[in-house]
Each structure stands twice: as structure tokens, then as C-alpha cells.
From TrEMBL, chain A:
Residues 50-577 form the Cytochrome oxidase subunit I profile domain. SUPFAM superfamilies: Cytochrome c oxidase subunit I-like (SSF81442). This is Cytochrome o ubiquinol oxidase subunit I. The keyword S-adenosyl-L-methionine does not apply. Residues 692-715 are annotated as: Disordered. It is a multi-pass membrane protein.
TrEMBL record, chain B:
PROSITE patterns: COX3. Belongs to the cytochrome c oxidase subunit 3 family. It holds the Pfam family COX3. This is Cytochrome O ubiquinol oxidase. The chain crosses the membrane at residues 34-54, 74-92, 104-125, 145-168, 189-207. It is found in: Cell membrane. Residues 32-210 form the Heme-copper oxidase subunit III family profile domain. The keyword Membrane applies. It is a multi-pass membrane protein. One of its GO terms (biological process) is aerobic electron transport chain. One of its GO terms (molecular function) is cytochrome-c oxidase activity. GO terms for cellular component: plasma membrane.
TrEMBL record, chain C:
Residues 25-121 form the Cytochrome oxidase subunit II transmembrane region profile domain. The lineage of its organism: Bacteria, Pseudomonadati, Pseudomonadota, Acidithiobacillia, Acidithiobacillales. Its main location: membrane. One of its GO terms (cellular component) is plasma membrane. Coiled coil: none annotated. Keywords: Cell membrane, Electron transport, Membrane, Oxidoreductase, Respiratory chain, Signal, Transmembrane, Transmembrane helix, Transport. It is a multi-pass membrane protein. It comes from the Bacteria. This is Ubiquinol oxidase subunit II.
Length: 715, 212, 323
């Protein structure tokens, strides 16, 4: 039943041979040396400072939703950097390889990258940016913030949460591994059939792509089950549906999309896997296959996925804009309806990804109209944000700058999106750079929201604000880069330039391509400013310590506990009396954290099993890529065994005694006395030497009265 | 909201913080989560059945045998009866759970598991016959999806059987602890769901195949 | 028959800022979509300009409103401050109403445009043909890895990477691919249509002006995609007849057996055009049928790894091979 392969295979190592290590390619060799040095430094430093125990206890085995969220974000940042380097290489190649007289090097006729190599780069760029950068960043932030916003102590499934993280990480690691062992897929991140079938993609690249993708699908599906269950079942008492923070609403709608769409992707990729491994005929051109089936299945996931990415971004904007407008969000109910409308319509638009496949005009008309319908709730959101600023007091701090950038990008992206939805336009520039520029506007909107959200919630998680000076340089260079890269790209779209070219035949396009390269230079500078931003913030963290309410005008439950948040989130679960509970309490002069009479708190216990399952899943995927059947079987059996063993474990919970809660709470409050700070996300490693000051940031920061008159009563 | 804030709030009349908060109902949360999981699995099946619809045209046979030539009604009937009896046995096991009878639960589950194995044996025989005749997934696009749906469903039955084995062991060790009970409830959902899916398999793969 | 397009006269005068910017450089700017020379592409251009105009009507006021709100209600500015104000039925009605209205208008236009340029039977060409009468020119297009073969079934000739069409006459295409999905486009004449293996799609165009237009594949099909472009020569009907006659003199003939060799993966770096003077009559249908029965022209693993080496090999093979 197994297929016939091009190239050698042996039972011990499968298709893996020494030739599969691309040591003769100077680019990959350089990358390897860079990665190796970086790895040695990180691992060496961990060993040198004796931090392995800390890393293991506090991070690798953790089931704390905040730490898992932080790790998601770290994975996302690392992959974002990789994706950025990929983008840099594509743009450089396209700026060199223009016209028949352009120079060639390193085995390429034009430019410095062979078609095969360019193919791998843009495939990796697309997959990484969508699945391994944007998704982990958004999932990470949802992971941290949603339980805090609904007043929960953890997620519904803390163990599953860790498993989702490690599966996603395994997928990302697999993509990275493909740099140095074998190669990656070379036909675009969403895959083409029959191009991705064995006859046209005989190497292991597509297999890497497929299994990395599948791992992230598993991880994200688990994450979505977890977040929905958390939001539906674990809200603090008094938090009715219409009192839920708007970001939580966005998370709920986005995870409903993920829950229903990711399984379809699993099928789309699974059937491709059957074709490649077992020789079935799902997507082949002949033998009764149907290649359009793949496009349909993939984009039934693919388009909801786009809204899966953008709804949390909208949610972040809806949190940031009211905070920095010092005003209530305009049209809360409308915002909720709009989120769900976008989520709902997302299911009926997928065919616009292949308007040119010769569907009947009535079919194309239907999907053209449904796609335009998305513009209605999106337009409503834009107006609501504008009317949130209207009659407000807008403060232009960094999170707000990012949110407003996102708003402007949404206007450009939304307008060009409506132009794409107009099917007769799409006939002309489908697969062209106009579409590319459009969706980069949208994903940059997501990136801007994420940067805004990181600036906004960073003090909540780490206890200090990021500095503003370098952050603003970073912001403005991102703006410059975006303009210089993507405005010419819209013109190239008008030129009819298509995606994924490694050589540009028409020299008239050269000026535009050169301008985009200048834009990339701005982006490079922006990355440097970002590093400076992080470095200076970490260095000066003592200056920027904040209390519970870091920005002073925040509105929701996450600001009703200490910064950094203790492991148990809330010593007492808040009782919710209003929408925007924290703002409501501040307006009524009752905004103080409760102290005294602490109780034991039950929390889930750390476990290494999710990490091992992640490692084994990576082993399984690696074995399947190279068709090392014994290793695949071994990993699979071990995984099943681990899952069963874990189910017999009765010792999964732990109790934080009241004394410990009191110690942590007191330390957070009387930080200046220099006692032990709370076990926040950074743990004692970073902030053990520091003092925790409070009161600089807001009303809630310095609660001193030991027993306020409105102390909680037993219900 | 704005209306409520205009009047003066008396903090003494309000609950602001919860003491002795009992936490959330674990069994209810976990069951809800399992329903969500089953929704994802239902989506997988939906995508597979949609693929079946796409790959059921004459052109997808590619010269291979049509469904009517390969479907054996006797096997299909046998599989249906076994699976439904197995679900029934599991139902009795859950009735016994209500009265807290360990023997009843384990007994019902054992019968259910046994019938699951019988189901798998019938399915294996059926497929073995077809493979022996050279009717394999590689033959045509239609047969690819035909076997994929059957095997995917059979894999669920395998998982169910293993799960029941684990649960029998856990009941023997822990009795009806909260963990065991929520797993038994989830397993009930899972097992019934497989029977529901089988109704779809029977309708769309077997009945429709015979008619077409 | 000769189709004259009236629309082309009016629209280029109504150039919007976008087009103005590009005209600053040079007229042959390479911005193909803004220089339409065919009936279909001009129809696209017409609707495109309408679409952009309507969108700008919404977007520009929105941008102005945003910037105004940002400035007027900045902290320390002189905008009034109402922290509790969060709802207004009038505003809600407007914020739902404006997008709803816009989408309604655009949907109507979009549907109209789709029927006008529908690849299988473009409304504009059908109308023009009805008015002018006469027979269209038929062309069968086969995309291989990575070349275009244009078969003229009425004239029994075929041409590689070069399409010659008479001006003012509808040209109707049937398209298929041997291996993977490609996408056929001549940006100044006609939009895209997928070219799929084992299947047949259709497209149609009318060229308005004599000239040479570029065409290429718009869907990723492998290592040779960037070189998978062809020239479209729109010539007068008389010149077209002349070209057909000279092509029929070509000694090279194409049968399925020859096509089988021709369709092997080949990166057309040199722009290798070729003419076949005689073509097996049902070649197009036979190719579709063979692919449906499972015929593949696989990509050798080695060819994708180092392009220079592969090209050397390819050149040697080409010298030895004959079609």
C-alpha cells in the first residue's frame, strides 16, 4: 500500500542520507552557524548560572496559563523573526533578479537564490507568519488575559493548555529543523494540488510542511476548546454575558471559528497525506481524484482562519482605545454583534480564494456578495472606535499609537479587500501582488494590535511598563517600512505582477521593486529599535514598576489584581456588578483590592508530560517525514502510553496554603519593604533582587487599609 | 450602565469579593469541554462526508468497481447491530452508575467493549475480502474516500475500546471518584457519538452507494 | 467581422489619482492593468474605476473623521469630555446604514461585472459578436511544465510560447494542463482562468489594438514558473491569415507521441518559441483523456535542487530530442 518513492530508502533511516544535509549551501551553512552559536550561548548561560532547575520547574513543566501564554508569545516572536528574515530574502532576490541581463550567483540564473530555494523561503514565510507567529502571539495573549478578565484562577484545562503549547512549538521546531535536515515545501504556504502530490514534489519538503501544519492544527484546536470552556464555564460570579469584557467576547467568537474550522484543515491535510504516503487518489488529476476538493477543504478552513486571526486583534483595539480615550467603548452591544457577524460570515466566503477556477457566474456572484458583507460589521467596528475617541480625552501613549496604526491599516486593508471581493477585479489580479499587499495590510494590522496589546498588558504580566522612547522609534520605523514596502506593492499589483516569482521578466517594474527594498531597510532598522526597546525596558525596569492598575484608566477585571499577577491570579475572586467592573468601581470610589482573611487556594500541579508529548509528537512527525517507520511507531506507542499513564495519576492538584497567599499578597502590597515579591511570571529569578513599588500607576496600586468596610461577605 | 453610576453606590450593600469561593463545577466544565471536542470531530466527519459527496460521481470511479459492487449488506447489517447493542450495553452500565453499582458498571462496559471488538472483527473481515479481490484505496478516487471513512470510524472504535479498558482499571482502583465519573460520562458521549456517526456512514456510504 | 469598443474612449479620460500618479513616470510604465487594450480588460477597467470611486467616497471621509476625532479629543485639547457617553441610536443607525448601502451598491455592480466578463461566455463579447456576426477564432491551450502550447484546431497549426490573434475578432480558448494547475492571463487583454490538468476550462478575448502583449501563468506551478511567459501578437486579420499560411509551411509536426516528449519538464529560459505546421486533430482531447486516466509527467527530484546544473542537462537533452 505504500507508494513508490524517488531516491533511496532504507529501513533504519528511511529517506535520510548524508546528502540531505545542505552543507554546500553557504546561506544555510551561515544560518546553521548562527543558530548553533545562539543555542550554545542560551544553553551555556542556563548551565553557567545554574538555572536548569528553575527553567524546568517554572517554565517547562508549568500549567500556569500566564506562563504558558508568555511562552506562546516567545515562540511567536522567534518565529516572527525567522519569517522576517525570509521576507528580507524574497525582497532582495526580487530586487536583483529583474530582466534577462541581471546577474546570477550560487547556482541561480538570476539573483542569488534558485527557484527551489525561493519556493522554500516564501512557503516558510507564509506558513510561519500565519501559523507559527501570528497564531501563537494571539493565542498567547488570549491565554494570559482571558482568565484574568473573567476572574478565573486558571483555564478549564490547564494540562491541555500546556499540551497545546508544546504541540505548536513542536510544529515550529519542525519548520526550523527543515532548514538543516532536508528541505521545506516549495509551492506556497497553502499548498497546491496536484503540485504537492508526489510526482511534482518528490522530496521531503511537503511532508515537513504537512506535519508541522498538522501539529499546529492539533495545538490550536485544543487551545480553542480550552478557551471556550473557560469563558463559558469559569466566569466570576456576577459576570453575565453582557458584562463580559469586549476582548473576552472577541476571544469567544474567534475560538468558535477555530473550533469549527481547524478540523476541516486536518482533513484537507490528512487526505493529502494519504495521497503522498498510501497512494490514494483524493487530489490527483487522474484516477478519479478531484483537485478542487483540496482547494475547497483548505479554504473552508483558510478563510475563517483569517478572521480567527483578526477578531482578537479587533478585541485588543477595543480594549486599548477606550482605556486611552478615558471613556467607555462606544456601542458595546454592536461590537459584540459585529464580532459574531464576522465570525458567521467567514464560513460563507471561501470560494473567493479561487474566483478564477471557472465556477459559473452565479456562484461567483454569490461569493462576491457574501465577501462584501464582511465589510458591514467591519465598517461598524471602525466607526465605533472613532466614536469611542469622540468626546473622550485621547492619550497618545504607545499602546494607543499601535491601536490607531491598526485602525488606519484596517481602512486601507478594508478598502482593498472590498476591491478584491469585486470578482471582476479579482480575475485580473488574483494571485497578484495587489492581493499580497492587501492581506499584508491586514496581517500588519494584526501585528500592530499585537504590539499594542503587548505594550498594554506587559506591566500586568511582568510588573513594569516598557519604556517609551525606543518604543516610539520602533513604532515610527514600522510605519515608514510599511509605507515604503506596501505602497509600491499596490502599484506592482496594478502592473499585474504575480506572486512567487524568483525572476522578474519585465524591467519596467524595477523601480517599484527597488523602493520596496528601501522599505525593508526601514524594517531592519525597526527590528533593531525593537531590540533596544526591550533591552532598555529590562534594564530600567525598576523605574517603571507599576501597581495593579498600570495605566490608571483601564476598565476590566485583569487590573483588579497585583502586577505581576500572582500564580493564583486573585486572592479573592471578584464579584462582578457592572460592565467594565474596574472602571465602575473607580468611578464609585470603591476601587481597592481586598486584603486579609486569606484562604487556601487549590491549583493544578506542574507536570512534565505535556512537554514529553510535544517532544514525542515532534519525533513522530520527523519519523513520518523521513518515513522511518520504526521510529514513528515507537513515538506513537510511547505517546499513547504516556496519555494513559497520566490518566491514572491521582496527584494532579496542589494547594497554596493561606499563609503563603498572605505572604505573597503582603509582599506585593508592601513591596518597598524589600520582602519577597509575589511569584509572578518572571518568578524569583529576575525580580528577587528588586523591590516592588506600588502606587505609581493607579488607584488600585496602594491599598493600605487592612480591612475595608466593604470586605467580602460570605455568600 | 451609565444610568447605574449616576446614583450613589452603597458599598455595604454590594458584594465585591467572594470569600470561600467553591470554584467551578469540575464535572460540568469537563463535560462541556468534551462536547466541544465532539463538535470538532463532527466537523472532521462533515468534511469527510462532503468529500464523499464530491468523489461519488461516475468520473471518480476511474474504471474501478462502483459502490454497489463492493458493499456487502450482510456485513453492514452485522456491524450496525453489534454497534447498537454495544451502545445499549453502555447505557445499562450508566444506569448502574446512578445506583453506584461497581459490578453493574464494569459488567455493562465489558459487554460493550466485547461488542466493539466484534464490530472491529466484522469490519476487518469485510475489508479483508475486498483487499483480497484487489479492491484497495489506490484503485480510484471513490474507493479512497470510501475506505478512509470506514477506517476513520473504525479507529474511533479502537480508541473507545482502549478507553473502556482503561476505565475498567480505574474503576477497580479508584471506585467512582470525580475523575472517574466525568470520564465515564465523556466516554458515554463518545460511544453514543460513534453510533450516531455510524447512522451517517450507513446512510451515505452504504445505502446511497447501493442505490446509486 | 470587426468589433469596435466604444467604452475605451470615455474611461481613460476619467483617470483617478491612482492612475495619475503612474502617468508621471512614463506612459509604458509596465502597469499593465491600467493600460487595457482588449474588450474584457477594458470592461474590467470600467468597473474597477467605479469600484475605487465608490470606495474612496466612503474611505476619505472616514479618514478625515478619524483624524479630526484624534485631534479634537486629544488630552489637553478643547473637545468636550463625556466619559459615560457610549450609545446613540442615531449614530448606530448611520454606522450600520452607510456600510450596508455601500455594500448594496457594490454588490449590484459586482454581479453585473461578473456576467460581463464571465470567462465561459463573457457578456460583452457575446453582445459584440451578436452585433457584428462572423466566426470566432478558436485556440486550444495546453500548459505543460513550463511552456504554453497554442493549438489552432481550425488551421491545424500549433505554436509554442507565442499566441497570434487577429484584432477585433473574438478569440475563444479551451484550456487544459498536463501536470499541475496554471493560470492563464494576458493582463492587457483578458483576465485569469485556471488551467487544470484532466479538465477543460474556457476563456475568450477581443483585442482592440494591434501590438505585442505579454501573457504568463499566474498560479505557482514549479521551478520554471518565472519563465513561463508568452508573447501575444495582436495583428490585423489579413496579417493573421498571412501568419497562418507561413506557419503551415513549418516542417515540424506534432502528434501525441511527440507531445509526450514535448511535455517533459522544461524551463524555457531562452524564450524558445516554436511553430508546428501540422498537428494531430484531436490532440487536446487526447491529452485531457490521458491525464484523466492517470498519465503524469513527473518532476525529477534532481532538477529542483540546482538550476544551473539542470539547465545544462536540459540543453543537452534538447539538442538530442526532436518533437
Amino acid at each position: 500500500m505504500l507508494v513508490h518513492l524517488q531516491g533511496p530508502w532504507n529501513p533504519l533511516l528511511g529517506r535520510l542520507t548524508l546528502q540531505q544535509i545542505p552543507y554546500e549551501n553557504p546561506i544555510l551553512l551561515g544560518t546553521f552557524i548562527f543558530a548553533a552559536i545562539l543555542g550554545v550561548i542560551v544553553l551555556g548561560a542556563t548551565t553557567r548560572y545554574g538555572k536548569w532547575g528553575y527553567v524546568w520547574r517554572e517554565w517547562l513543566t508549568t500549567v500556569d496559563h500566564k506562563k504558558i501564554g508568555v511562552m506562546y508569545c516567545l515562540v511567536g516572536l522567534v518565529m516572527l523573526f525567522r519569517g522576517f528574515i525570509d521576507a528580507l530574502m524574497i525582497r532582495t532576490q526580487q530586487a536583483i533578479a529583474i530582466g534577462p541581463n541581471s546577474p546570477g550567483a550560487l547556482g541561480a540564473v538570476h539573483g542569488y537564490l534558485t527557484p527551489f530555494h525561493v519556493g522554500q523561503i516564501y512557503t516558510a514565510h507564509g506558513l510561519i507568519m500565519v501559523v507559527f507567529a501570528a497564531t501563537p502571539l494571539l493565542v498567547g495573549i488570549m491565554n494570559i488575559i482571558v482568565p484574568l478578565q473573567i476572574g478565573a484562577r486558571d483555564m478549564a484545562y490547564p494540562y491541555l493548555n500546556a499540551l497545546g503549547l508544546w504541540l505548536t512549538t513542536a510544529g515550529g521546531a519542525l519548520v526550523m529543523l527543515s532548514l538543516f535536515v532536508g528541505n521545506f515545501a516549495h509551492g506556497g504556504w497553502y499548498g497546491f494540488v496536484p503540485y504537492f502530490e508526489l510526482p511534482y514534489s518528490p522530496g521531503v519538503g511537503v511532508d515537513y510542511w504537512m506535519w508541522a501544519f498538522q501539529l499546529s492544527v492539533l495545538g490550536t484546536t485544543m487551545g480553542s476548546i480550552n478557551l471556550i470552556a473557560t469563558i463559558v464555564k469559569m466566569r466570576a460570579p456576577g459576570m453575565t454575558w453582557m458584562r463580559m469584557p469586549i476582548f473576552t467576547w472577541a476571544s469567544l467568537s474567534t475560538n468558535l471559528i477555530a473550533l469549527t474550522s481547524f478540523p476541516v484543515l486536518m482533513v484537507a491535510l490528512g487526505l493529502l497525506g494519504m495521497d503522498r504516503y498510501l497512494g490514494t487518489h483524493f487530489y490527483t488529476a487522474g484516477m478519479g481524484g478531484n483537485l478542487m476538493l483540496y482547494n475547497d477543504l483548505f479554504w473552508i478552513w483558510g478563510h475563517p482562519e483569517v478572521y480567527f486571526l483578526i477578531l482578537p486583534a479587533f478585541g485588543m483595539m477595543s480594549e486599548i482605545i477606550p482605556t486611552f480615550s478615558e471613556k467607555t467603548l462606544f456601542g458595546y452591544a454592536t461590537m459584540v454583534i459585529a464580532s459574531f457577524a464576522i465570525g458567521g460570515v467567514s464560513w460563507g466566503v471561501w470560494l473567493h480564494h479561487f474566483f478564477t477556477m471557472a465556477a459559473a457566474p452565479n456562484v461567483n456572484s454569490f461569493y462576491s456578495i457574501t465577501t462584501m458583507l464582511v465589510g458591514i460589521p467591519t465598517g461598524v467596528k471602525v466607526f465605533n472606535w472613532i466614536f469611542t475617541m469622540y468626546r473622550g480625552r485621547v492619550r497618545y501613549e504607545l499602546p494607543m499609537l499601535w491601536a490607531l496604526l491598526a485602525l488606519f491599516l484596517l481602512l486601507v486593508g478594508g478598502m482593498t479587500g472590498m476591491m478584491n471581493a469585486f470578482a471582476s477585479n479579482d480575475y485580473m489580479w488574483h494571485n497578484g501582488l495587489f492581493v499580497v499587499a492587501h492581506f499584508h495590510m491586514m496581517v500588519l494590522l494584526i501585528a500592530a494590535s499585537v504590539f499594542g496589546a503587548v505594550e498594554y498588558w506587559f506591566p500586568k504580566v511582568f510588573g513594569f511598563k516598557l519604556e517609551q522612547k525606543w518604543g516610539k522609534w520602533f513604532f515610527w520605523f514600522m510605519v515608514l517600512g510599511t509605507g515604503w514596502v506596501f505602497v509600491p506593492m499596490f502599484f506592482l499589483g496594478m502592473a499585474g505582477m504575480t506572486r512567487r516569482l524568483d525572476y522578474i521578466p519585465y524591467t519596467q517594474w524595477a523601480p517599484y521593486l527597488h523602493i520596496t527594498l528601501v522599505g525593508m531597510a526601514f524594517y531592519v532598522v525597526a527590528v533593531l529599535f525593537f531590540v533596544a526597546h526591550l533591552y532598555v525596558s529590562l534594564r530600567d525596569r525598576e523605574k517603571n514598576r507599576v501597581g495593579a492598575d498600570a495605566w490608571g484608566t483601564s476598565r476590566n477585571l485583569e487590573w483588579m489584581t497585583h502586577s505581576p499577577v500572582p500564580a493564583y491570579n486573585f486572592a479573592f475572586i471578584p464579584h462582578v456588578n457592572a460592565r467594565d467592573e474596574w472602571a465602575w468601581r473607580k468611578e464609585n470610589g470603591i476601587a481597592e483590592l481586598h486584603a486579609g482573611d486569606y484562604e487556601d487556594i487549590h491549583m493544578p500541579k506542574n507536570t512534565g508530560i505535556p512537554l514529553f508529548l510535544g517532544l514525542l509528537s515532534m519525533g513522530l512527525a520527523f519519523a513520518l517525514v523521513w518515513r522511518i517507520w520504526w521510529l514513528a511507531l515507537l513515538c506513537l506507542v510511547l505517546m499513547v502510553a504516556l496519555i494513559i499513564i497520566r490518566s491514572f495519576d491521582r496527584d494532579t492538584d496542589t494547594t497554596i496554603p493561606a499563609r503563603e497567599v498572605e505572604r505573597v499578597e503582603r509582599a506585593a502590597r508592601d513591596g518597598s519593604s524589600g520582602s519577597v515579591p509575589p511569584a509572578g511570571v518572571l518568578g524569583d529569578a529576575v525580580i528577587a533582587t528588586s523591590t516592588v513599588r506600588s502606587g505609581s500607576g493607579g488607584i488600585g496600586g496602594n491599598t493600605t487599609s487592612p480591612r475595608p468596610s466593604w470586605a467580602p461577605r460570605n455568600r | 450602565m451609565s444610568a447605574s453610576t449616576t446614583q450613589k453606590i452603597d458599598p455595604n450593600r454590594l458584594t465585591l469579593w467572594e470569600r470561600h469561593y467553591p470554584g467551578h463545577d469540575m464535572i460540568s466544565t469537563r463535560t462541556f469541554g468534551f462536547w466541544l471536542y465532539m463538535l470538532t470531530d463532527a466537523m472532521v466527519y462533515a468534511a469527510l462526508f462532503a468529500s464523499l459527496g464530491v468523489l461519488s460521481h461516475a468520473v471518480n470511479l476511474a474504471g474501478g468497481p462502483p459502490p454497489s459492487a463492493i458493499i456487502n449488506p450482510v456485513y453492514a447489517y452485522g456491524e450496525t447491530i453489534t454497534l447498537f447493542l454495544s451502545v445499549l450495553a453502555y447505557g445499562y452500565s450508566m444506569v448502574a452508575l446512578k445506583s453506584g453499582s461497581r459490578g453493574g458498571v464494569v459488567g455493562g462496559m465489558f459487554v460493550s467493549m466485547l461488542l466493539g471488538v466484534v464490530f472491529l472483527a466484522i469490519a476487518a473481515t469485510d475489508m479483508g475480502h475486498l483487499f483480497a479481490q484487489g479492491v484497495v484505496p489506490e484503485t480510484s478516487g471513490f474507493l479512497s474516500i470510501f475506505f478512509t471513512i470506514l477506517i476513520y470510524h473504525a479507529l474511533h472504535i479502537v480508541v473507545g475500546v482502549v478507553w473502556m479498558l482503561v476505565m475498567i482499571a480505574q474503576i477497580a482502583r479508584d471506585g467512582f471518584s470525580a475523575n472517574v465519573v466525568y470520564r465515564l460520562i465523556n466516554l458515554r458521549l463518545f460511544w453514543h457519538f460513534q453510533a450516531v456517526i455510524w447512522v451517517f456512514v450507513f446512510t451515505f456510504v452504504y445505502l446511497q452507494g447501493m442505490v446509486a | 467581422m470587426f468589433i469596435k469598443n466604444k467604452r475605451s474612449k470615455t474611461w481613460p479620460r476619467l483617470v483617478l489619482p491612482l492612475a495619475l500618479l503612474t502617468l508621471g513616470g512614463c506612459s509604458r510604465s509596465g502597469l499593465f492593468l491600467l493600460e487595457p487594450e482588449g474588450l474584457i480588460s477594458q470592461t474590467f477597467y470600467h468597473y474597477f474605476m467605479l469600484d475605487v470611486g465608490i470606495m474612496l467616497l466612503i474611505i476619505i471621509p472616514t479618514v478625515v473623521l478619524t483624524i479630526w476625532a484624534m485631534w479634537r479629543y486629544r488630552k489637553g485639547g478643547n473637545g468636550s469630555y463625556h466619559p459615560q457617553w457610549s450609545h446613540s441610536y442615531a449614530i448606530e443607525a448611520v454606522v450600520w446604514g452607510i456600510p450596508l448601502l455601500t455594500v448594496g451598491v457594490l454588490s449590484y455592480l459586482s454581479v453585473k461585472a461578473i456576467y460581463d466578463v464571465n470567462p465561459y461566455n463573457p457578456g460583452v463579447i457575446a453582445k459584440a459578436q451578436q452585433a457584428a456576426g462572423g466566426d470566432p477564432v478558436e485556440v486550444d491551450v495546453i500548459a505543460t511544465d513550463w511552456r504554453w502550447l497554442f493549438i489552432y484546431p481550425q488551421q491545424h497549426i500549433a505554436s509554442v510560447d507565442e499566441l497570434v490573434v487577429p484584432v477585433g475578432t473574438p478569440v475563444r480558448f479551451r484550456l487544459t494542463s498536463t501536470s499541475v494547475v496554471n493560470d492563464f492571463i494576458i493582463p492587457q487583454l483578458v483576465g485569469m482562468i485556471d488551467v487544470m490538468p484532466g479538465m477543460r476550462t474556457k476563456q475568450a478575448l477581443v483585442a482592440d489594438k494591434a501590438g505585442t502583449y505579454v501573457g504568463y501563468s499566474a498560479d505557482y506551478s514549479g521551478a520554471g514558473l518565472s519563465w513561463m511567459h508568452f508573447q501575444t501578437k495582436a495583428v490585423s486579420p489579413a496579417q493573421f491569415e498571412q501568419w497562418v499560411q507561413s506557419a503551415q509551411q513549418s516542417p515540424q509536426h506534432l502528434s501525441y507521441a511527440g507531445f509526450n516528449r514535448f511535455a517533459r519538464p522544461y524551463i524555457a529560459v531562452g524564450g524558445d518559441q516554436q511553430i508546428f505546421g501540422q498537428v494531430q486533430p484531436d490532440l487536446f482531447d487526447q491529452v485531457v483523456g490521458e491525464v484523466m486516466r492517470g498519465k503524469v509527467w513527473p518532476t525529477p527530484m534532481a532538477m529542483t535542487e540546482n538550476m544551473v546544473n539542470y539547465m545544462k542537462k536540459q540543453r543537452a537533452e534538447q539538442k538530442a530530442g526532436d518533437y
